[in-house]
Amino acid sequence: MSKKFFRPTAENFEDSDDDDDESDQDEALGEDAAPKRSVNANLSDDDEDDEDEDDDDEDDDEEEDKNQKKRKASSGGARDKKRSKAMSFFELEAEASDDDDDDDDGYRGKNKDDENMDAEAQEIIRQQDRRRAQAGRFGERSVADIARDLEERHRMQNRTVHRSRIVDHPVSAVPAKGGSRPTAMPRVSQTTAADLAEEAPEMYTNAVAQQSLVPSVKDPSFWMVSCANGKEQELVMQLMNKCVAMARQGNPLGITGAIAAQSKGKIYVESFSEPAVMEAIQGVRGLLQYTMRLVPIQDMTTVMTVVSKKKPVKKNEWVRMTRGHYKGDLALVKDVKESGLKCIIQCIPRLDLTLADLPPEEARIRRKTIRPPKRFFNPQELASLGRQSLRRQRFPGLDVYCDYFEGNFYQDGYLLKEMTVGSMVKPCSEEDPPTLEELQSFQRRKSKKDSEYDDYDDGEEENEGSKVAASLLDELSDLQGKTGLGSKTSDGGLMIGDTVEVIEGDLIGMRGKLISLDGSTVKIKPHAANIDLGGMDEVEFLIGQVRKYIPVGAHVKVTDGRYANETGVVVAVEKLDGESDFTAVVLTDVTNKEVSVRTSQLRESAEIASGQDRLSGYELYDLVVLSGGGSANEVGVIVRVGREDFTVINNHGLAREVRPEELRGKRNSTSVRAVALDVQGNQIRCGDTVNVAEGPHKGKSATIKRMSRAQLFLHSQTRSEHAGIFVVRSRSCVLSGSRQQSRGPGMDGGVSPFATPQSQTTRGPVGGRGNKDDGLIGKTVRVQAGQWKGYIGTVTDTTATHVQVELHSRLKKVLVVREKVIVVGDKFGATSAESQAIDSMESNHISQAMATPMHTVGGATPAHGFGGATPSHDSGVSDEVWRPGGAVDQEAIKDDGWGSSAAYGGVSDSYHDNGTVYSDIPRDDGWGAPANTGWGSAPSTAPTRDSQSASSRAPVKHEQADDMEETPVWFMERVWIKLKGSDAVAVIKDINPDKSALVELEDKSTRTIRSSEAMMVPPVEHDTVLVTGGNEIGLEGSLVCVDGTDAILKIMNDEFKIIDFVHLVKISADN
Amino acid sequence: MFYVKTLSHEIVLEPVHFGQKLRATLVRLLKEQVEGLALANYGYVVNVIEVPEDQIKSGVIEYDTGSVIFTVQYTALLLRPFIHEVLDAVVSQCNPLGFFAFVGPLRIFVSKHSMPEDMFNGFDGEKDAWISDDKEVVIASGSGVRLKIKGRTVEQGNITAIGTIKDNYLGLIDDGEAQGPV
After folding, report:
1. What interface predicted TM-score (ipTM) does this complex get?
2. pLDDT (tens digit per residue) in A423-467
3. Mutate to test the interface with B, among A352, A718, A721, A725 (most CBs of B within 10 A)
4. CB–CB contact B151 A585 (8 Å)
5. Which residues of chain A make contact with B121, given a CB cutoff of 8 A?
6. Where do the domains of chain A lie, and which CATH numbers do they carry?
7. Contact, A180 vs A28, CB < 8 A?
8. Which of A630, A626, A570, A642 is CA-nearest to residue A599?
9. How far, CA to CA in Å, does A670 sit from each of A625, A673, A708, A997?
10. S1 motif domain spans which residues (chain B) (predicted)?
C-alpha cells in the first residue's frame, strides 16, 4: 500500500521523462513538502538534489534512489530520533523500488550505461548509511551534524552526477527552477553543496522566504489523533517502530512522519493519504483511532509552533498583583507553595484605618471606591489608635513572627499574604519590570527603620525584602545607566553646553559649562568667575570626574529610559545609598505626578511635553463613551494613558481601567457645545472656571474640562490624582471669574456665591428664550391684586411686563402684570414657611394673639411673609440643592458684609425710586423695604434684575430673621408700651411691615416708633393681659394676682389659669 | 523680594483717546496692562507707583493703523523670586505630592521631597494637610510657612517657583488659626 502511495511520484517522473521541464516541476513541488519542515541545511541539500535531477533525469534508477534519500533527509532532518532508525528502512525501500523499477522496462533499455553506474552509486550510499548506522550516535546528533552528513552525501551524489554529466552534458548549466525556490539559481555543476549550504540559511531568514515554506496542498497533510495524556512521545516511538517493521516486511507504511507536538493528548501523523494513516495507527495501543481528524492546512503551522513555557513564580522574584486595591502593586515572593500554585508574597500594605470608625454601610462603599495609599504597617500607630485586635502571631507555613491585624499578617511593616499564582499575582514580565520608584519605596523602609523602629525590630538588621529591593535597585540603576547611554563610562549623558559639577579631585563641587567632549576627557568653563584657576579659562577633567548637574527647580526633559520625553520640574535631587548617580524627582507637567529619573537621563529644557498621551486614537482628557457597566451611555474622561489601557474617570467620579476596545468613541465635540446651568442659573460651558459650592469638593476652584449632561469634569492644576480631573454636578458649582461679571449684572458687588437658587425646573431652551427668562418661570406665585387676587399658581411664561400664571385652583392660565404677583414658593408649590406666613397673616387681622411665635416664622407679618417668600431657612426644606449654602453657610453669609445696611441702602434706594408701596415708611433698618419691593420694581429694571433680587434675597431673609429675634415677642397690636426716654405710655395701634409701629399715646396723638424705642409695661393686677409664651399662648384675660413668678389669670369664662408672669403683656381692654 | 524699579512700556493708543485726557488715559492703560504681569527678568509688577508725566514723550504714529505708540517710563513695585531667597508664604492647597503656597501672585510648590524627613509620608488626605510624624506640625490650607526658593520657572506672563522647607528655621510659622495677615 505504501508502495502504491510512493509510486505516483516516481512513476510520474519516469513516465514524463521526455518533457523534463514539466515533470521536474512536479517533482520539485512534490518534494517540497518534506524539506519545508526540515532544517535549512537539509533544504539546501534538497535543492541541490533537484538541480541534479535536472541534469540527469534520464538516470532513472539513481533518481529513484535520490528520491528515497530525500525522504530520508526530510524525515531525518525534522526528527532526528526517528531518522536514525528509519534510515535502514529507506535503504530497504530503495532496493524495493529498484525492483519495482525493473518492471519499467522501456526505460531501462534506454539507459544501459547508467544502470551500472547506478549500482555503483547505490553501493556507495549503502556503505555510507551503514557506516552511519554503526556510528550509532544518531540519538544525540545535533542539527549541525546532520547537516554535515547530508552535505557529505550530496557531495558524493554530486560526484555521481558529475560523472553522468560528463557523459551526457559536457557543458551544463542548471536552469532556474521557478519561483518557489529562492535558492534555485543558475549554478554550475561544479559548485559544491557545501557552498550552497552556507548560503541557504541567510536566504531563508527573510519573511518572503519564510512564507514559501508554509505548507501547501501539494504537501502531505497532518492528521491529529488523540491519545492518553503523557503517552504522546511513547506512541510516536511505537509508530516509528511499526513503520520500520512494516518496511522491513516489504510493506512500508505510507506515512511521512509522526509528531508529538506540545499539545497534550494529541499526536500528529503526517501523510499524503488518509488510509495510510489509518493503517499506521491501526493496532497501536493507546491511540484512539476514531478520533483521527485532518488538520486544516492553515493550522498546520500552529501545530509546529513552539509556545514558550509559562514562567513559574520563584522565590525571591518580583511579582505584580492583579486584583483589588493592590492591583499593579509590586510584591516579592517569599515562598512558593503547592508546587507553584500558591505563593507567599511580601508587599507594602494598603490599609484603610478609617474603615473601622465608619458605619458598616459607609465602610462598604468606601472599601469599594477608595484605594488606600501604600503605607508601611506600623503597630505603634495602631496601638495608639486603640485597636485591640493587634497581636503577634506566627505566619502559617513560614517561621516568622508577624503582627496579626484584622486577618492579615504584617512583618516589619510589610504585608505577608498567601496568593494564588496566576489569578492573584503574576510574575513581572520583561516589558513591565519593577520601576525605580517602586523599588525605592519598597526599600525606603530601611532608612526609616533605623530611627523609628529600633525598639521593635531589635536584632534583625534589615528586612529581607528590603534587601532584595536594594540589590535589584543597584542592578537596575546600573542597567539603566548602561542602556540609557550606551556605556556609563562613556559620557554619562553629557552634552556640550550642559552644566556639570565636578565630583572628584581638588575642584570638587565646582560647576561649569561643558565646552568640549573628547572621548574620555571633557573641558569645562567654570561658572564662578571669582575662582582663581591660575589664569586658566578652561579646565580639563576626566569624564568620570564630572556629572551632569541638574538644579532643583529646573525645567527638564527626560531624554531616555522609561519616562523618555516627559517634561517637568525637578523638585528634588537626591543621592541614594549605594548609588553612584544622582536621582532627580521630576514633577511632570501634564499628569502632575512624580517620577524618579537619573540625572544623566535629563536635559534642561523649556519644552512642555504634551505627546505620549495617545493610544489608539484616544488622548488624555478625551471624553469617551464607555461600553459595559450598568448604564448604556456611561461616559468618562481619560485621566491616564497607559501602554495598553486607559484610566477613565466616569460620570460618577469613579476611576477605572479600561482597554481601548471598551471605548466607543469620543464625545469631545458634544462636550464643547454643551451648556449647563450652575446653581445660580448661569450658563456654564467648557473652559469656564467654577467654584464648587457643595459636595466633597466644596470650596475648590477649577476649570471645566469636559461636560456631559449635568456632570462637569473639572480640571484643577493643583490636584495630582487623576491628572487633576474630578467630577461635580453642574448644580453644585458656581461660575466664577470675569465671564460671570460680564454676564450677570446681579453678580456685582461681591454677592455671595451661595445665593438663593432659582428654579430647578428645566425652563425650556435657555438660549432660545434669551434674556426673558429671569427665573420666575416655574415659581409658585400669588396674585396680589386684580380679579385673581389671592390666587396661587405657577408661572408658565413671562414677558417683560406680564407673567402668565397657571392657577392651582382653576384650570386656567391668566396673564397678570408682573408687579402684581409675588413668589411664594418653588415649582413644588408654596413652601411651608409661606403657608405659615399666610396663616399668621390672616390671623393677624382677627387677633394678634393667634400669631405663631414670631421668631420661629421669618415672615410673620404680612409684608415679611411675602418678602421672605423664597424657601425660608426654617421651613425645613429637605432638598439641600435648594440651599447651596446650607445651614452652615448662614453664618458666613451674614458675615459677608451683608449685615451692613449701608451696603444695601443704595440698592434699596433705587427700588424706592420706582415708587413702591412702602416708600413712605422710614427705613432706618434698610432691610425690609428692598426685600418687599423686589418684585414690584421689576418692570423698570432689566429682566435680569429680578434674578438679582431673587438671588440677593436669601441673605436678606436671614437678616430679617435676625431682626425678628430682636423684636420683642410682645411687640404687637393692643399692647401697652412705654416709650423709652419719655416714659410716656402708649398703645400699639398698628404694626407696619417694617416692624415699626403706630402707637397711640394717652393724649390720643399717634406716632411711629420702632420696637427698640419701646419698653413693655409690666402688667399689674386687674389689667387685661395677653399670654405671649408657654402652653397657653394667645390667651387673654385679666390678671388677678401675682405670686412670685406665677400669675393667676382670670379668662373669659371665669376660669382661672396660672401662667408664668414673664409671658404676660398688658393690652388695652377695649376692642 | 520686592523692589522698586523704573521700567518702560510701550502703549499703543487709538486716536479716539486723543484729547485733553490723553495722559490720564495713558496712565490708566499702563496700569491695566502691566499690573499683575510677570516680566521674565523683573518678576511680577505688583503696583505701578508713579508715572512721571514729564517722562511721557510724544508718541509716534503708526502708518498702518493710525494708532500712536507711546513709550512710557514708570516706576513699579516688583516682586521677583530669587533662588535661595527665604520668603513667608500662605499655603493654598495641599496634595499628596506636596503643597502650593502663595506669596502675593507668586505660586510656589513645595514637594514632599523638600519637606523635613518626618513629614515625607505625612500627607493626610482626610484633613488635606501635611502632618509631621509627631503631629506637632500641621501644614494645611491657610497656614503660613517660611520657605526657601529653590527654583523658578518663567512662563508667558507667569512665574512659578519651587520651594523647600527642609532647612533650619524654615517651615510652619503660622497655623492659620489666627486672623490677620500672615
Report:
1. 0.77
2. 777 777 666 677 777 777 776 554 444 444 333 333 344 556 666
3. A718
4. no
5. 375
6. 219-303 (3.30.70.940), 317-443+466-471 (no CATH), 614-735 (2.30.30.30), 779-825 (2.30.30.30), 969-1010 (2.30.30), 1018-1070 (2.30.30.30)
7. yes
8. A570
9. 12, 5, 8, 60
10. 81-157
